[in-house]
Fold each of these.
Amino acid sequence: MVHCAVTLAESWQDRQRIDVQREMSLLTQRIVVRSLFGNDLADRDSRLGDAMAVVGREFGVELGVGLLTPSWVRTPARRRVLAAVATVDSEIDRLIRARQEAEREAEDGEDLLSRLLAARDEEGGRLTVRQVRDEAVTLWAAGHETTSTALTWCWYLLSASPNTRARLTAELDRVLAGRAPSYDDYDRLSWTRQIVKETLRLYPPAWILPPRTARDKVTLGGTPVPAGTTIWCSPWSTQRDPRWFPNPDVFRPERWDVERPENVPEHAWFPFGGGPRTCLGARFALVEMTLVLATLAQRFHLDVHPETVTPKAGLQLQPAAPLHATLHDRTAQTTR
Ligand code: HEM
């Protein structure tokens, strides 16, 4: 994670203007591919990233008017999704083939893909290539766009909060003293972690969870719920509820100060869902966001424009307009 973030920081220039979501998306994609598949997409990553962006965008349409259109109708949006899915499938197939090739050459595969290929059930059966591909696509898709969206919101919030940003750079200078962070720093970077947590409260990328169905009749918060009822839970609405978060619309990482806990009930903060189907990559994402933020903020300030943007609820909660940022290299400012 840090290696990918350092490489990105080295490619950035003082005063350069960037598309924040795109930079974060390419970064988290590289991270997930390297950590999970032990491979590098080299020049193909934008092809995969663009295909994924199409799926994300059109899925929002599908959640709207798409719900009223029978599933057999091939709308232009659905055709775009199918083409994008075919691209994703073929790119992931390519990664699997590369991995199988490496296995044959007896390279040691410690990554998740190698483990899926090597996995055997009780009878010695293995996963089919299609099953491996489906697992890989799930992890790849679940594992990068959510995190990049969260990081995009994070830069947006930081840009509008000079005091929070100043405290962040002070922590990074104190804990890291100019070196790149490592996994061991995760626990030491408490203010950085609080910023990440507060960002996920205000702008949970998964603003609504996959629905649950009540198996039995139950009463929830005084409301009787018959068996078979579909229940939608929204981190967006709960996490902005003043009953659990005073001044809920204000970005205040202080809420998460471990020394002065603010008594947030369990599951009032649930950007990763909850229960047996909770996000499999929650820890991965929290570590990733913290280390990426630490690596990049150590070197750069991002001034994000526009300064106010409304969120748009599609497959994820994303800024309705693209966010751009002007980079300010902190080291260039010191030497200037
Ligand atoms: C900020 C980043 C992320 C957010 C906000 C997020 C959010 C979520 C949410 C809300 C769910 C549904 C949970 C539920 O229904 O209760 C979920 C499921 C899942 N997530 Fe994440 N996720 C993130 C990052 C990741 C990463 C990095 C990975 C993998 C490396 C990942 C893998 C998965 C998987 C496999 C599931 C399905 C779990 C299951 O159904 O058993 N996620 N995620």
Note: The chain has one domain: 2-335.
Amino acid sequence: MVEHDPHAVLTIGDFAARAGLATSAVRYYESLGLVSSVRTGGNQRRYRRAELRRVAFIRAARSVGLSLDEVKAALGRLPDGRVPDRADWTRLSGEWRERIERQIAALRELQEDLDGCVGCGCLSIDKCSIYNREDKVAARGAGPQLGFKPF
Ligand code: FES
């Protein structure tokens, strides 16, 4: 039965419908090298059913917060452009778990900083860690630390 044949090919409309994407998104992913198609004699795109697994991988990776460049890099580490198998998924999802843990830790820190701002509203560059979040020289001490040089 064609339905379960991994070598069966789909038109772009059928592929997009099964992947839950717009056809424009399929073309975009293809232009980025994330999915691939073969061409018919009439130059129409046909997608192997196995490419649906690449789309599932892309969507899962995007939901974790990976950029398309990062997704492409992850897929690019697979030999011969094959689709991700269970072992690939296990390895990569483990890396993503660490990423999510770092994101959660950063958000917790942000939440704690924000707790200090509730009811304040000063937005002081000296005092407010939300407003001045990236202050890398604060640890050097109070006052100017970067040696302002007038003209
Ligand atoms: S608004 Fe005052 S400390 Fe952030």
Note: The domain at 1-59 is CATH 1.10.1660.10 (Multidrug-efflux Transporter Regulator; Chain: A; Domain 2).
